[in-house]
Every structure is written in C-alpha cells, then in structure tokens.
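Hey, I'm writing a tutorial for new members on how sequence and structure tokens pair up, and I'd like a real worked example in the thread rather than a made-up one. If someone can provide the structure for the chain below, I'll link this post from the tutorial.
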Amino acid sequence: MNRYADPEKLRELKNKANRLPLQAGVYIMKNKDGEIIYIGKAKALKNRVTQYFGSGNQHTEKVRRMVSNVDNFEYIICDSEFEALILENSLIKQNKPKYNILLKDDKGYFYIKITDEKWTRIETAKSTDGKGEFIGPYNSGYIVKETVDEARKIFKLPDCNRNFDTVTRPCLNYHIGLCDAPCRGKLSLNDYLENINSARDFIKHGDTEGLSIEALTEKMNTAAENLQFETAAKLRDRINAIKKIREKQKVVSISYKSQDIIATAFIGETACVEVLVFRNYRLSDKKHYFVNGFTDKTAVYNEFLQQYYLESLDIPSRIVIDTDANELNIIERWLTEKSGKKTEFINPKQGEQLKLLNMCLNNAAENLSEKTERTGREMSALNELGSLLGLNFTPRYIESYDISNTAGSENVAGMIVFTDGRPDKTRYKRFKIKGFIGQDDYRSMAEVLDRRFSEYEKGEDEGFSTLPDLILLDGAKGQINAVLPVMKKYNLDIPIFGMVKDSKHRTRAIATTGGDIAIKSNKRAFKLVTDIQDEVHRFAIRYHKKLQSKIMIKSELLDIEGVGKTRAAALIKHFGSIKKIKEADITELSAVKGMTKASARAVFDYFH
C-alpha cells in the first residue's frame, strides 16, 4: 500500500480505476476540496490510472504525495491518444494543477544599459528603470549577457564597480589584457568614453558600422603608416579580440539553420532539463529548468515538452534529444500540426549532433551539481553512462562484482558500490565461493548474485537493503548470461552489463548480451567505468591474497609437532599474524583456546 495515503480511500479509488475503459483519454485528479491537482493523458485509461493506486514502492516521492491527496478523479474519453494530448494541454493551461510540470512563463524582456554617470558603464538590465540609455528589448537574457561580455572584451572595458577617480592597483583583467584599467589613473576620461561609444556602436550595429575585421585592419594599417603606433596597437588588440570571440562562436555553430538541443541530467528524483536554442546556425539562447519527482527521461519529456512548446511561436523543424525519439511520436505530431511544418525528434549516435547533445547534457549536469554536493564532472559521467547504455534514468546507485582465485583455490568475489559517482566503501561486501570446488567464473558470479539478492529478501543486513540502479560485472557476455537466471528467479529488472578489458588489462568496452558497446569516445563515462573496474578488481584480489596469506601461515604452523588445523586457525585468529605468534611467550601461547602447555612450548621452541 501507499504509505502516504489512507488504505480505505486507496481501495475505493483503485476499485473505481478498475472500472475505467481501455480507451484513450484524459484523467483529472482532485483533492477533497474539489481542486484539480493533476491532469494526465493515457492510451488506455484503466491501465494508466490503476497504476497510481497500486504499490506505492514503485512510485516517486512526488507521485506518492499526489496520490495521498487524491479524493476523487474524473475522466474524459477521447478518440485517440493524440486527441487526448491536445485536450490535456488545454486543461493544464486552464487549471495549472499543482503536481503537473508548470514552467515559469517569463514574459519579461532584457536590456543592455549604458549608465548615466561620469565614467559610463555597460551593464545588463531586466527593466528600463533608472537613468541611462537602454538598448533593447531582447527576449533572451543569455543573448544580453553574451553581448555585454563580448563588448567588454573587444573594447577592454571594466566589469567592476570601482571608483575610477581614485587611483588603485589594477585587477587580474588588466594583466591578462581584458581591461584598459582606468583605475590606474593612466587612461583619460575622453579615451575611456571613446571606447564606450565604440562599444555602443558595436552592440547596436555589429559589423555594419566600420567594425568588421576588414575595416578595422584598414584603419590599423593607416594608423601605422601615419606613425600612430598606439592607435594601431589598440586596433590590433580589438581585431584579435573579435577573432577570438568568433572562434568561440564557431565551436557552438551547427550545420542546420534552426534546431533545439534538449538533454536532461538526474540526481535522485530531481532533474535538470537543458535547452540549447540554435537559430541562423548559431547558439542564440540557452535555458534550464529543474523538475522534481521523476527518475525517467521519457516521463519528464512527456510533460516538459508540452509545457515548453505550448505557447511558443518559434518551433524548429529539428529537435535533438537524449532519449528514444520513437517514444515521442505523439508530441512530434502535435508540434508538426502546431507549427504548420514537419517537426521531428532526433536521437543522434555519432558526429556533430552527438557532440552538441553531450555539450547540452554537460550543461544540465553542471546546473544540477549546484543543487547537490556532487561536482558537475561526476554528474556528467553518470548521465553520459546512462545515455550510453540506453537507460531512461541516471544510474545513481551502481554495484559491481569481480571474481578472484588462483587455479580455483581460495575462490572469492568482491562487491563494491558507487553512489552518485563515488565509491561507497561502507557498502562493500566480500564472498567466499561455497557452492563448488575449482575454477568456474560463471558459476561463481551466479552464486554471488544469488546470495546477494537472497539477503535483500531477508532484509536483515543493511548493506544489502538497497537495490542497485545498475550492475556492472567484470567480464563479458558469458558472465551476463550466467546471472540472468538469478535475476529471473528474484523477479528483478535491473540492467546488467559487463566490463571488458583489452590485452593489457585496461577497460575497453561495455558488454551486453548482444555484443560490445564502444566506450572510449565517451570520456567521462569511460573514466567512471574504468574507475569502477579497477576498484572492484583491487577489492576482490586483496581479499583473495589475504586468504592466501593465511593459508601460507597455517601451512608453516602445521609443521610444528602438536599443532593441527584447529590449533593453527586458533593461533592465527588470536594473534593475527605469524610475526606476533613468534613474539609471544609460552604463557601467552597457552592462553589461546585449544592450546596446552606442551603445544605452547612446541610453538615457542620452533620459532626460537
């Protein structure tokens, strides 16, 4: 049962849901005051709505809270899932339910402000309040910020709030050539204002008012011919700054005139959806949105995309997205009808578009990292790995297994855990293979996972109480096939992959039941998998060597008259090492369980 809802009410709602038709439609959840708190669509109403009132363990925290507030629900039958999508959009727009994704509809504009003061400055502004000249409006805060940054770099303008009538030591921007540093007292007010006016013209007119590289180069050459070397040097620096900015722009230019790039990063049930907007072959805007209560990309996009494009008049023909495009056919059709032109979702696997998608995903991860204690690099690696493996979620809790033995002797296994991209050593486990004697890595791996999930069902060991999002086995297709019957036995649907090494024992690829997935081109995911494989190997082999060491100690003790396997084991357990046994006196040796004075004397005499 859902632990957040009244059991009696749950039964009532589930019985009502079981009477729904298996037809497409829209369902409307209401609280006890009759307020609409959630609106959704379904291809088959009965199947979708009954899921809400089943096992709460399968729901996210957000869904559990929503269900706990449902007092009743209504539904509207539609002729198709597409018709249900249109109706759902209309109802959400009208009612703005609490538990639907509601993106902030920011109708505000952005401006570039030329301040009204002695040492005029160029700044970003969200309104035209106050004195000064305002250039705009712009729809994108990103464009405004980028334009101001470009103008400052080209014309070496300050980005600080210092009083330039007072001489002070310049900051780092001056030393790296990004600012003329009027704070030094060596730049006249007239020269400074001339730079401001040039920057104003650049912002307003770009290359059209004599600010193209060609025009500036001509001016620079003329100044040099007239021996105006200071002016020529200033123009040279301006030309170089423009070239650097254009090189930066080329990095994020595309071969398609207009398209949106959308990617989502997860941590737990919090997601960050990043949107990169490309128009006229250049990045023209970027936005990000945080949504809660999701662990699945398809579920996020089924709601997010509707809200994001609901009132948009600028829908591109291509939308590059980091999930299976086939899952979004209904939304694709809706956008096509809404925009009046063919719109398609693309999920690239290689080339320029994949690079742009990874850049978008990295931006989403960086934004999400600000809300967590994890770094953007760790978040990017997890999200990149999830995408690489075709998962619709980020594998936050990863378990990995490796087998270690010497020709079948002291056959052991190690289990390690990575949580949010970092080793979680408090959850590491060690196993001695008990089911057979000899070397068989496949049977060993199957035994270990069987024991691990048997412990999960018992619920007695906290270290086994969490089901992993992903399992990585040290090995290839054979290891995966060996454990699949175990997963079926416990009715578990956990993604399992192998980690394949090359001839030099370095991580090479990810193994699946159908073949290998190349991983080296995905740098962050590759490093994460390599770290996991190295760590699980280290942990397993360390346990194996420890057991081997004990055997060697036992074999030496067994050479002593009167010491058998039982007494040898007792001595090792009591003292912990052969060195400490050698240092012990007869009284200390006699105190060990099972030892006699005669056997203690024999051990002492053997080492002395």
